[in-house]
Prior knowledge:
By secondary structure, this protein is of the alpha+beta class. Helix content is 32%, strand content 23%. The strands form 3 sheets. Strands 3, 6, 9, 10, 11, 12, 13 and 14 form an 8-stranded mixed sheet that branches. Strand 7 (276-278) and strand 8 (283-285) form a beta hairpin.
Amino acid sequence: MVRLHNYIYYHNSLTNFLLVVSRKRKVDNMEDDEYANYIAMNTNKKICGKEGVRGLFNLGQTCYMNVILQTLFHEPVLTAYFLGNGHSTSECQKANCFGCALADAFAEFSNEEKDESFGALNLLLASWQTSSDLAGYHQQDAHEFYQFLVNQLHESTTGHLDCDPACRCFFHTAFFGKLRSTITCRNCGKVSRTEDPVMDVSLDLQVQKKKRALDGRDQSSDVAPTLQGCLEGYISPEKLAASEYGCTQCNSNMGVTKQLRLRKLPVILCMQLKRFERNRSVSEKVETKVTYPASINMMPYTTSPRSENRSQFQYDLLSVVVHIGDIDSGHYLAYCRHGEEWFKFNDDRVTVVAESEVLGADAYLLFYTLQAYGVSK
């Protein structure tokens, strides 16, 4: 009971803060300050839940679901929310509610009287009943399931705003950031900006090579990609022809330059390494090795690349999802950090692993969680 009370206290402080933010978010500076305060108050890595870990049974090619669930089970803010009754299953009237299904899964995972594996059947059935594409015992894409689940969780929250970047519900704060796209005319210099909510960052493993080819630059200096290099490629300016995006001011044929930067970062940052390429002529899995760090500072990839407060952009690796096999079949497993240890989750088989094995894996999805500052690990 002590641990449950701790979760309830932790969740209530988080909820009270969100209520304040929802009333006060008026200008960008205030938004950034309050967002940073929210993170500082609510991302303690010292979770007070079950000390052990539990596997998940494969219910029929459901490894894609299991790896996403294991990732969420090991995220401190989500743990505090669900075990602190952030979503009340007794009061919810929504049919096939994903908030209820995930709350039940968190409760089962954290049951101290059990240590054997279990199956997330309620969540699986809810996904089948909500999406015909997911129904049945077919292998699904873990990244697509993550996007589906986050959207369903967002819709399960009372008072959420559909397709509105101003939404301040818990799941929008936890999972959604903002992406700014800047278009600059190469003839007259006109600049236009748009901002859209984003729940993940999809990184092309060959984007640097492709951009060098478009610019006519030498390809011989190619080296094995790093996560930081992929992010640099993601935000580097891209030249678009006038036929792709014309300037409404000067109507020139000089084309425009497009650049992406992250305007706001979520608490839980998902980065997809694009390993599956499909086009008219060929479908293939990109087996390129990518190195990635245990911690990363995302400040250089934001709209505030020279911010004085670097700490609010610091992330720790939470989970690595790996796909084994070819593009049309295969198996998913996940590495998740639990306290100071790393575990390998292969459905119901759970083993302790060294961090070196985690950082050496052929990642498909990388989940980072915003590091608590001012709070010891």
